[in-house]
């Protein structure tokens, strides 16, 4: 009888531990619209439609707070509207394309803060992105226009339903992504990425 009680106790503890671990760490996938633009001299100020796809892990550290690391691929299109505004030796007069595709592999690490309910969360945190676009050389001379890395701040809201998740966030670039050098410009142009991401996904 003692052995039976011991076996039941071990099974109960193992079950509780498994359930607790499942509640502490959850995984999922998500995707949706990526409305992006470059905030800088000469670029169109309107957001251009793209998409994003990725996966995430939700790690609940304490009640009401956790972290959510992600790996997200996003794409958008910038558009040059006025080449005369560029200062860097008029290099943009020699553009071979005025709508370069900007594709990034991003790694945001966000804090999840419950807003009165574990299903509704505020998300804030940093994001590092790597430019994966093959067409970085937008000049006739083959010169690169964009840096390979970008550092951003992210803020948004997350609605966690039993299986489906819905998210909305704003991504604002903190670093200058321009790789155009100006030999005679006193103040080189500064370009910063901005994006609105609207997504839906599945949480396992």
Polypeptide structure, described:
This protein is mainly beta and 204 residues long. Helices cover 11% and strands 52% of the residues. The chain has one helix and eight strands. It has one helix spanning 2-24, and strands at 25-39, 48-62, 65-77, 101-117, 120-131, 149-160, 164-173, 192-203. The two termini are 39 Å apart.
What is the SS-derived class?
mainly beta
Order of helices and strands: HEEEEEEEE
**Count of alpha/pi helices:** 1
Give the end-to-end Cα distance, rounded to a whole number of Å.
39 Å
Protein name: PorT family protein
Keywords: Signal
Domain Outer membrane protein beta-barrel: 21-178
InterPro entries: Beta-barrel_OMP_2
Question: Secondary-structure map with pairings?
Answer:
Elements: H1 2-24, E1 25-39, E2 48-62, E3 65-77, E4 101-117, E5 120-131, E6 149-160, E7 164-173, E8 192-203
Antiparallel strand pairs: 1-2, 1-8, 2-3, 3-4, 4-5, 5-6, 6-7, 7-8
Short description:
With 204 residues, the protein is mainly β.
Key traits:
mainly beta, 204 residues, elongated
């Amino acid at each position: 009888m003692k052995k039976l009680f011991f076996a039941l106790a071990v099974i109960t503890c193992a079950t509780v531990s498994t359930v607790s671990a499942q509640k502490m760490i959850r995984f999922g996938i998500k995707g949706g619209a990526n409305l992006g633009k470059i905030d800088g001299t000469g670029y169109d100020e309107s957001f251009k439609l793209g998409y994003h796809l990725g996966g995430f892990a939700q790690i609940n550290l304490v009640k009401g707070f956790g972290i959510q690391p992600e790996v997200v691929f996003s794409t958008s299109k910038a558009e040059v509207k006025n080449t005369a505004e560029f200062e860097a030796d008029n290099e943009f007069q020699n553009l071979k394309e005025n709508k370069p595709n900007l594709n990034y592999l991003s790694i945001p690490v966000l804090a999840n803060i419950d807003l009165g309910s574990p299903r509704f969360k505020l998300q804030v945190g940093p994001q590092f992105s790597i430019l994966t676009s093959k067409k970085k050389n937008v000049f006739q001379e083959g010169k690169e226009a964009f840096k390979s890395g970008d550092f951003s701040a992210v803020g948004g809201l997350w609605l966690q339903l039993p299986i489906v998740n819905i998210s909305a966030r704003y991504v604002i670039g903190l670093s200058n992504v321009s790789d155009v050098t100006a030999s005679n410009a006193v103040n080189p142009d500064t370009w910063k990425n901005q994006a609105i991401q609207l997504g839906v996904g599945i949480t396992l």
